[in-house]
Amino acid sequence: MWTRREQTLVPNTWLGVPCWQNPLDVWIIQEIIAETRPEVIVETGTFAGGGAILWASLLSMFGEGRVITVDIREELHAGAVEHALVRDRVTFVTGSSTDRDTFTQVAGRCVGARTMVILDSDHRADHVFAELDLWSPPVTPDNYMVV
Description:
Blueprint: H1 6-9, E1 13-14, E2 17-18, H2 23-36, E3 40-44, H3 50-61, E4 66-71, H4 84-89, E5 90-94, H5 100-107, E6 115-119, H6 125-135, E7 145-146
Parallel strand pairs: 3-4, 3-6, 4-5, 6-7
Antiparallel strand pairs: 1-2
């Protein structure tokens, strides 16, 4: 199946930064962003940073919004840090997406803002369930959590 092939994800980049996003998912997520106009997108699972830059570029088209992206490995997104959109619209947080302290740090930056959450870190069931439980509260009414 085309969507499960490694070639579907691995060679993709966004503005020159590796972006391991399924193109079909990106299409739907951009529709959600266009419809709901979040002021903050929280992303778990930064990897190389291409997803964060992708979401930030979509937000910039609407004139406002920022991305807060969480990952346990800071060195993986080192190449993305210097991108112009990153300087203006992306905050990198190093920590586990299931750690209460990491959550508290990020959730504090979402208070009062229309917030969307994209869970894309560890895809094992127990981790996803823990993320769902932890990250549901910051999602504002009429916005989405994408898993």
